[in-house]
Design brief:
- The protein is of the alpha+beta class.
- The chain contains twelve helices and 17 strands.
- Helix 4 packs across helix 5 and helix 5 runs antiparallel to helix 6.
Length: about 575
Amino acid sequence: MNEWFKKLIEQFKNLWAKWSVTQKIILFSITGVVLIAFILIISFSASPSMVQLIGAPIRDEADLSRIVTRLDQEGARYQVTAENRVLVADEDTAKKMRAILIREDLIPAKTDPWAIFDIERWTLTDFERDVNLQRAITRNLEQHILALDDVDAVSVTLVVPKKELFVEDQEEVTASIILTPRPFSDLLENRKKIEGIVKVIKFAVAGLIDDNIVITDQNGIQLNIYDELRDVDRIEIARREIKTKKDLEQQYKREIFSALRQIFGQDRVQIIKLDIDLDMSKKTINTEEHFPVTMKKDNPRTPFDETQVVPSITLSKETIDESFKGTGFNPEGPPGQEGQTPPAYKDLSNLVGEYKKASLIQNEVVNKTNVIEEKSPWRINRISLGLAIDGMWKRKHDEKGNILFEADGSIQREYIPVADENLAKAEALIKDAVGYSQDRGDSVTVEHLQFDRTLQFTQEDAELRRQRQLRNTILSIIIGVGAILVAAIVFRLISKEMERRRRLREEELARQHQAMREAALRRAEEEGIEVELSVEDRARLEMQENAINMAREHPEDVAQLIRTWLLEE
């Protein structure tokens, strides 16, 4: 490899020497351009790849706060720059959030959605720009609608007429949309979702009105005909009322369970039935209230109240008092003619009487106010509640504290019912919890009822039998293992003892053979007979002599060696 590098360097030096100055300058220029491009690519790729949610900065802090709050509710990852531009993670998130913001009227009023088209291109004509704009609007609108969770497919067709000189000649913009809802979606029955899609289309296309928008499903049924959705609205209202009723009943159940199950136990309280009759009708009450007129206000600097009030103030007053007492005189006409006195008064002539008349008309001014009270969306007409409380089961034990068992192996148990006093207290607690009203006709019943615990007791008995069997099995295993360990230890001891005895016996035999051999050698030496020893016997004799000599010269080392042998044995 080193030779190859050396050869390559040598070739490059020869080539460099042959090049002219111009070629060298061109080489340096190309190398510099490549390095700069590489650095730019790295810098751009290292920058965060986030997408703008709205093409323009949001100047209003209130609009920015509402948009950020909605992003937090959707769990979208976003970033707000110093210029108040909102950036999201990717284009799909941007499409989805734009659709939500448009549907809920959270797009700022002064936002310019077409800022991207401010870029001028010399190679495009005005017609091409209009066509590209329409195609971009159509494509963007399809992406917005597809970002909705309830839409599986969409096809959008926009008709944007050419602008005319006179308004009366201008044709209106129209839009037709074909939607394919996702499976198990309520898009076809939910009016609010359809209205949201219509609003998305209106915001996306300038000059488009509701009458010029047609939305159909894949079967050609028009969806944005709201008159035909009234029955659907009634069904939706009924569904919401039922949901409200169920939620309220669940809330009451949770409150009752949380209170009683901490007192009686988790599995001893059971609601048989809870029914809340709700009145969902909308009511508005208009009342007129009258209050006194304050003539003098209280002085806060004094320790006493100086307020002076009167029930009313006299606006106008008229009094008439007329009285008559004595005999009246009825003049007659000329002699020989009838007078002009009415017959009713003629009969009263020359009579003594008394006449009085009194009349009083007084107009008073009072303070009043009109109160318009909007009742809550629902009102409880009646509450019916039935609740059962189970007693307690207690296991029986003997004098030593051991559990007693039946003949079949099940646990002996004793049932303790709930006292009537506790039932009455529980009923009082429930009445206070649900807001019991006798005038409303509420009904709350709390009874003692023994629950069926057969399955629970069967499981407890089976668990206890399993525990006892497991305990006996573990005890048997422990005893077996202990016996095996004891047997192994005894076998090991016996084996060592037998091995020791065998070794001692062999040593004794070897010692006897050696003694006999030595005695034979001594006799042969005494008799002058030459004995030829084998190689093994000669080596053994030399080793024996060496051991005797070492024992004589170094007795301590030999003693330590013998001790080591004995310890190993």
